[in-house]
């Protein structure tokens, strides 16, 4: 083979050029060109992956690098900083501003069963990038399709544990985080060298065939919540008011109780004071109590004075009538009081005495 190559080179070279030296020079030039072809440049958003005889050997950073030229080593420079996107449930299109919008629904991917056995239409996107270029190139045959299938599988699992109402409203952020976490765990198990950066729900709606009926149900639920809120507001208004009224009544009852207890203690103290005074001077205290009691009784009754030394016709003085007449503005006194003066009563009393002598009064 070497001799045939030399003969072929001699045919192309002009005669008289030195034969073997010329061939050697040509071979050196070819070898130099072949060796210089091993230089390659890696861009800032790329990573160099060097394969030696088809097997992974090493990775090289961005910049100018060198690898043994083909067929010994080959270099691949995947973009490791670019964010890739996998759409599930739709095929994306772009509007006039370049914004990605769903262009066509894929119902086979988007229709999913919820935890309460309802069906919803879910469109979402999985954003990912290359984390390990070696694993990305050699551990999975089709990394893009693997990411899409893993995201769809995990989304069906998470939706299957979630009721339809939270999935349509407040649980969307939680669903996105859960799907991202589980998809990343699955890709790590595959050793795909992929990092899931974000899962974005674009549409979570009931199927188009039942969306009107579902909206009626939503309106009914909204009315129910409104009525419940109104009832809660009424309860929050009336209960504190009733509690305040009850507290006021309790305070009033407590005040009345305290006043009655204080009054009873005062009466008991007064009685104990009287008892103490009675113990010190029983005769004086008894007489004072008797006089006070009689004064209280006589103040409310008519006053009649009777002389126990008289018999027969008993003259009496109705003093209360005269006081009432004076209190009413009259000047006339009762007839008995006008006539019975001390000078007149003395003879009458003397006349009655002989009859009483020797008798029993």
What does the model show?
- It is a single chain.
- The chain is α+β, with helices and mostly antiparallel strands and 361 residues long.
- It folds into four domains: 36 residues; 123 residues, 2-Layer Sandwich (Tetrahydropterin Synthase, Chain A); 93 residues; 55 residues, no CATH class.
- It is 55% helix and 20% strand.
- It has twelve helices and 13 strands.
- Strands 6, 9, 10 and 11 form a four-stranded antiparallel beta sheet that branches. It has a three-stranded antiparallel beta sheet with strand order 3-2-5. It has a two-stranded antiparallel ribbon with strand order 1-4.
- Helix 5 crosses helix 7 and helix 8 crosses helix 9.
- The longest helix has 70 residues.
- The radius of gyration is 62 Å and the shape is rod-shaped.
- It starts with a helix and ends in a 5-residue tail after the last helix.
- HflC and HflK may interact to form a multimeric complex.
- Its main location: membrane.
- It is a single-pass membrane protein.
- It is found in: Membrane.
- Keywords: Coiled coil, Hydrolase, Membrane, Protease, Transmembrane, Transmembrane helix.
CATH class designation of the largest domain:
Alpha Beta
Listing every helix as H and every strand as E from the N terminus to the C terminus, the arrangement reads HHEEEEEEEEHEEHHHHEHHEEHHH
Q: Do you know the CATH topology of the largest domain?
A: Tetrahydropterin Synthase, Chain A
| Uncertain residue ranges | 325-361
The quaternary structure here is single chain
Largest sheet: 4 strands, antiparallel
How many discrete structural domains? 4
Shape: rod-shaped
The CATH homologous superfamily of the largest domain is termed: Band 7 domain
Q: What proportion of the residues is helical, as a percent range?
A: 40-55%
CATH architecture term of the largest domain: 2-Layer Sandwich
Q: Classify the secondary structure makeup into a structural class.
A: alpha+beta
The N- to C-terminal Cα distance equals: 186 Å
Query: What percentage of the residues does DSSP assign to strands (E)?
Result: 15-25%
Number of helices: 12
- Which radius of gyration do the C-alpha atoms yield? 62 Å
Quick one: how many beta strands? 13
